[in-house]
Structure formats: C-alpha cells, structure tokens
Amino acid sequence: MAGMHEWLVEYGFFALFLLSFFASTLVPLGSEWMVVTMLLARNEAWVVVAVATAGNCLGALTTYWVGLYGGEFLKRRVLRMDEKSTRKAEDFYNRFGSMSLLFSFLPVIGDPLCLIGGVLRTGFIRFTLLVLTGKLARYAAVAWLTLQGAGL
Length: 152
Known about the structure:
mainly alpha
C-alpha cells in the first residue's frame, strides 16, 4: 500500500484530473473510484472534488465541442436525420432537453447528452452551468458518502 500512497502523492491530482476528463468523453471510464481512493488517502475533500469536477466538466465541454463542430456530419451521416426530424429534435431539446444536462454525470447516457447538447447548439453558458451543477453534485455526494462511511 505504501507504493500506492507514494504514487497518489506524486501523481494523484494530475491522474484524477486526466481520469475525470476522459471519463466525461465518449471513452468508457469511471473516476469515482479515484475520488474515493484519494479521500481515503486523506487528501482535502474540497480539492479532490474541485479537481475531479474540473476535469469532468472539461471532458464534457470537449464532447460538446465535437457535437457543435461535427454536428452536421453527425446528424446527416451517423444519425441519418433529415430536416424534419432535425427540427423536431431541436424543438424538443430546446423545450425540455437542455435541463437533462443536469444528468450528464450518469453512466451510459451522460456523454451522449453532452454530444447532443453540442449537435443541437445548446448555449455555451447554459450547457456549462447545467453540466457543472450535475457533476459537482455527483462528486460532492461521493465525497460526503465516502467521508461519512470512513468516519473521516
């Protein structure tokens, strides 16, 4: 265990940032285990949550950017959406969908939500605030549960 502790001291926050970043792209990874590990190694909870949230949000923004700038290709070639179905999807997402970005932290559906947010051109500030809120709440909950469970 001493080796793991030394590794976390040396690379922990950088590794947490990268893992959180990639976990919020279309790469199928999870970062919660590293948050728990770093908390159990007695790192400051607010720093762990802040680093994980920052990495995860930047990963989501990368996915959003792919949707934003690759949107036409994705809509036409990959999703095979015509003008009518595109307009319907945009209307629905603009009316109800952008609030679903609060759930962008969920496995399986979270990353596609961020991609759709870009494809359907959700405003940058709205996208960022919704995603940041959801991801911060998730990491804060993981930290709180970990600290409560470990009696720290």
